[in-house]
Protein 1
Amino acid sequence: MNRKLMIVDDSNVVRRSIERAVNLDNLDIVGVAGNGIKAIELFKETQPDLVTMDITMPEMDGVQCVEELIELNPEVHILVVSALADKATAIEALSKGAQGYLSKPFNPKELNEAFLELLEDD
Amino acid sequence: MTSLTLEQTEQHDLQAFIDGTAHYFDHITGQEAVVGAPYLRTTENPSLEYTGMIGVSGSRKGFVYFTSSREMLENVLDAMGETDFCDANIADITGEIANTISGNVRRSYGKNFMISVPVVLAGGNHQVTFPGGNATYIIPVSWKQFEPRLMICLE
């Protein structure tokens, strides 16, 4: 069965680069969102298995959104993809329930490896 | 205990931006950028066609700016595999470059180097406002045939 991916980032260019980079046979993109509030709405509609989450976004930041998504579904896999490269932010996101942290800038190979690592845990 | 002179402190502070800029272009485009030595701003308006501006608060206060020609930004999008060079995507990548370089600096500066979402200024004659009282350093970049700039104005 294919897994469902939702992409959350306030940059359209980054969202599209993630869409192009996804290169796993069993992963379908079910939605994209530009901020945390839209991400929660879309999450309820599409019930993704995997989410890429930016942190610095307007309306609601990624760390708060991670917390809310985990409350909705503790089983969801969340990969934070952020320019914030300090350890404390990564630890905070992971403590809220994210399972992976990839620093921007990223390349397609790194992104797909991070997806595989998260999905392997199942 | 070693103490640093003011010049050494400034060089140390700027090095994280220099390293971050080189890393960004190398990683995103696969083509290295040459990042030059920082110098103090002397001209009134050193901005190019597009400028991405990041507000900094917390342990440091001020702004980080990335400014570039449109043609260079189109080349960055192309290197990323993006084919749509519309105005919105050009503005978006301008902000994203400023955001990524500023965010990566937290590797050295820590979590209290807090950054805003980017604001993008566009147009050949746009004027960037620099907060008074602080020196602005310009870090020249050379990537392909283009010469964008990073501008750092921090307390």
Protein 2
Amino acid sequence: MPEPSADKQFRAACNSVQIVRSDTTARLIFAGEWSMQRDSADAASALQSLCDGRAASVGFEASELTGWDSSLITFLLKTLDQCRVRGLGVDTGGLPQGVRRLLDLATAIPERSGARKTAVRAPFLSRVGSASIDLWKAALDMLAFLGATTVALGRLLSGRARFPKAEFFATLKTCGAEALPIVSLISLLVGLILAFVGAVQLSLFGAQIYVASLVAIAMVRVMGAIMTGIIMAGRTGAAFAAEIGTMQVNEEIDALQTMGVSPMEFLVLPRMLALVIMMPLLCVYADLMGVLGGFIVGVGMLDLTLTEYWQETVRSLSLTNLWIGLFHGAVFGVIVALAGCMRGMQCGRSASAVGTATTSAVVTSIVSIVIATAIITVVCNVLGI
Amino acid sequence: MSASEPHIRVEDLTMAYGSYVLQRDLTFTVNRADIFIIMGGSGCGKSTLLRHLVGLKEPAKGRVLYGATDFWGSEPQERDRIMRGIGILYQSGALWSSMTLAENIALPLREYTRLGAGEIQDIVALKLALVGLAGFEDYYPSEISGGMKKRAGLARAMALDPEILFFDEPSAGLDPVSARQLDDLILELRDSLGSTIVIVTHELASIFAIGSNSVFLDPETKTMIAGGNPRQLLQETRDPKVRTFLTRGEQ
């Protein structure tokens, strides 16, 4: 059986508002604790009934109020707003002093006209149009960036550029040696997968031995480069964009420019060169790991001997395949470095802009890698190599 | 110090982002050895004006003259030469985070002088000592406090003994004592090196303590509405906006 005091406490813990009407005035009587942590009482219906009534003025009473916070203020602001619309007189005298002062503060400066943002939804065609224009501008930006990089490279080759050697070697290390473990794992697995898929089909004809050539040609000619490219896009391209983007946020790029040091020479060039040097090397390494993966399947599952597998691999590979693979690798190196550095340089001046730049760098790299592969494959086909 | 020899002239400058005009018709002169204050409420374009003066952003209209040379109208080599003569302390310090303080200060020296490694090291130590950071050569920017970053940024800005020093909100984020020390340092630099100093700030204490000339930007009319010595401006101005600003709204 609950004690009476507990019952009273319960009532006190609930907020409430009552409307008491006399001839011309309506009094709003607040009681209990008004808190954002509780469900607001019948505030909405009270406001409604106040509006429906025919009072000429509104007063307040708060002697029963035990506590209040912003929920009471917002309710009162709505009430005052309604009173103003209906031309009712308002007497806030009955409210606690703190509440009155906050109400005064909230209504002291009227809303600036035009400050509120209005969402304008453009018609479909206009949105398509501006999206196309943006796309065109983005393409022009990319070309401009490529041009600026080429100019910087030209200055470097003619010995006029400032080239930060320490930064270059540090980048060589992070995008070369430190990428080896992940490149090993992924390429080995891709080799394994290729061999498995090939083995199932080829063993139908008793041609298991061609698993070796399948894996060798696929890895060396294109898969090694693609897998390395995608790994480097996620690993290094994203890092470039985040590094340069953060420098942009931190005004470090401005500081370079006003010192007369070209950010293209100082930041972009070392990163791009490091990646373009390292990518083909990583590709060769990925090729080897892929062939090793195929070898594990061939010898472990298909009962080929080591020499058989080796000889078939050597027989099927030509130097042309290797050159094509290396070419892929170098192109992907340029793409990943270009996308990473460009998105970093274009980065806005906020924390979220760095995130956007990073995402955008990875997406741009991967899409460009796939498109470049398609183009190179078609060109090779046309040229018959 | 020759009192009123013009150092930087801004003529009829309009600043805009795309079609959005931030300020228009700005015309003022910064004299040699002035401590020139660019002031105004938040968002009126003070920092953008600074970016125009130091060559980071091209004006939509108008000219910025260094001495008799039109900055934006001259060849890139000439612009580089002018930019080498200025030092900038950015709001956050903008030290290059991948380099130590010594490397930060040494970069412009290596870039633009023929000094050997030992001499550069001596100059770096001197500049760090001038800003009260002697011995911090091998610290990275992430290892020191905000106030120290500002002072290190100042050491880098002074690396090439520039004729003009720009400060973007030097006292933002500093405690009152550090802010005062920075003000004293600025005065000291002006007096000893004879540098011209341009400061973007809305810190009243600094404005009255060190400012010798100023321009007041107003965001509503989008142009400058006052200028001159801040203390004199406080005495003489009739403009209610300027008065409100300079008295913290108390009069």
